[in-house]
User: Which sequence fits this backbone?
């Protein structure tokens, strides 16, 4: 009389566990990078929201505002961004300006904690360039690359 095997052998189960471990080792870091990139997108959106009112201020007055909040309104804190500030050219009559978004110290991916993203203009707000302050470029959204 012949018996049929039922179930899996120990070696088969160990192979499945090893495969799952390898997949997890690859997927988890990729997912963490994805999360950081999505959090940096909030900074890009906040900076983008300030381009028009700040450029209009400069076009009207001939100098940059001294603070971002005086023109933009809410400049933080947001879910992932602690502040948006004017760091270069604020209050000056120069045509260049830098808007800086600083990521929060808590509640964000550890790879971008407290780091900055910059939005710069050198022509009075007509053209803006997204620049990594000290955020690794792999975390920048496509709009900033």
Assistant:
């Amino acid at each position: 009389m012949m018996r049929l095997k039922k179930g899996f052998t120990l070696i088969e189960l160990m192979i499945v566990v090893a495969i799952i471990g390898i997949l997890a080792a690859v997927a988890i870091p990729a997912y963490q990078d994805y999360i950081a990139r999505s959090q940096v997108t909030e900074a890009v959106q906040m900076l983008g929201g300030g381009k028009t009112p700040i450029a209009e201020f400069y076009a009207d007055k001939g100098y940059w505002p001294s603070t971002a909040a005086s023109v933009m309104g809410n400049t933080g804190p947001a879910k992932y961004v602690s502040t948006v500030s004017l760091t270069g050219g604020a209050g000056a009559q120069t045509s260049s300006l830098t808007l800086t978004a600083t990521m929060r110290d808590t509640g964000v991916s550890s790879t971008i904690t407290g780091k900055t993203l910059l939005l710069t203009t050198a022509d009075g707000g007509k053209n803006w360039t997204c620049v990594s302050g000290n955020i690794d470029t792999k975390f920048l959204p496509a709009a900033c690359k």
User: Anything to note?
Assistant: Strands lie at 81-88, 97-103, 116-121, 129-132. Residues 11-144 form a domain with the Glycoprotein, Type 4 Pilin fold (CATH 3.30.700.10).
